[in-house]
Design brief:
By secondary structure, the chain is of the alpha/beta class. Helices cover 50% and strands 9% of the residues. The protein contains 7 helices and 6 strands, in the order βαβαββαααβαβα. The strands form 2 sheets. It has a 4-stranded parallel sheet. Strands 4-5 form a two-stranded parallel ribbon. α2 links the parallel β2 and β3. α1 packs parallel to α2.
Length: 190
């Protein structure tokens, strides 16, 4: 890394992980895995954290943060949050799916073949489905606090990196959502 970090040892590293092999590689390198980074169903997210616990045990890793990164948008009511986040989320979905498209006549290398299925999955999603299946967390402060509580109680999550600015969501709305998170959700977990 250039320039070299002044801090020694270097600052802690965190990395998004989609597969158990990536989790294990991160743990062996002392990198904190970030799970649930993109549209992960709750049962799958819980299973990912269970696999992380197994990998931590296998690698002898202790004292590491358990980090989740859900999509979060908070407004004064759940209905308002859904309405305000719908169009930006659809834009995000369309753009994100494009990342998994190859030029005509090319194929994914074997080690990246799962990206093809991932792209198909992203293209199949609707905004309504995202909300109904808890793939994104749009709601009022109480609803979001319930989801954070679930992460803590069911997945033993220690840290949440809320993905709060997506799809061109208006800056003022992002700031309001962050304010509601800081004033109405976070105090419940101190």
């Amino acid at each position: 890394m250039i320039p070299k970090p002044l801090q020694k040892p270097h600052p802690p590293l965190w990395q998004p992980c989609l597969s158990p092999s990536t989790m294990e590689k991160c743990l062996r390198r002392g990198i904190t895995p970030i799970l649930g980074t993109t549209l992960t169903p709750l049962p799958d997210l819980k299973a990912m954290f269970e696999r992380l616990a197994e990998a931590m045990e296998q690698t002898g890793t202790t004292g590491m943060h358990r980090v989740a990164r859900p999509f979060v948008y908070i407004s004064d009511s759940s209905e308002q949050a859904h309405a305000e986040a719908r169009e930006p989320m659809q834009w995000f979905l369309d753009d994100f799916a494009g990342m998994f498209e190859l030029p005509e006549g090319t194929v994914w290398p074997e080690t990246y073949r799962f990206f093809e299925r991932w792209g198909q999955y992203i293209r199949s999603l609707t905004c309504e489905q995202l909300v109904e299946e808890d793939l994104v967390w749009f709601g009022d402060a109480e609803a979001i606090a319930d989801k954070i509580r679930w992460l803590r109680d069911e997945c033993d999550v220690s840290d949440v990196l809320a993905f709060m600015h997506f799809g061109g969501l208006e800056h003022e709305k992002v700031l309001r959502s962050m304010e509601l998170f800081a004033t109405k959700v976070m105090p419940r977990f101190r």
